[in-house]
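Hi, does anyone understand the following?
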Amino acid sequence: MGVATVLDPRYKMKLVEFYFPLIYDEISQSKIDEVRQDCCDLLVGYQSKTKKSLENSGGSGIDETSFVSNIDASDINILDMYDKFVASSSSQAASKSLTKLDMYLEEIVLPRTQHFDILSWWKPNEVKYPNLQKMAKDILDIPVSTVASESTFAIVEE
């Protein structure tokens, strides 16, 4: 629940930092740190999944360090080469993505409104926070039941 709260732009870590001292008293800071660490660990998992999917999508065996001089541009789409180049710099991407969590948490908390759609907020922010957006979608997207509650309790008469 702590991670879900952090992924809500109306609350982020502020709600955790507000309530945990009321709930946990002396050990509240360790619990707050635990929620932050859970967010970081989950983000690292999403980053590695993204990295693997990028590597698997273009496994043509091209050496990224010398691909520009060895390939005729008419043979391979230049943007595919760019994607492989970006995937090859994964260590830089991982450190930047972790700071993306910090950047997200440092932004202003949105005002609370009654009819706020969290997933609609995350959709345009996918460009800015791609892995956080995937996390939010997976964690906050609760499938709606297709069976109406009335039909569950309906009595069939013959």
User: Anything to note?
Assistant: Residues 97 and 130 are 9 Å apart (CA to CA). The mean pLDDT is 78. The two ends are 46 Å apart (CA to CA). The chain has nine helices and no strands.
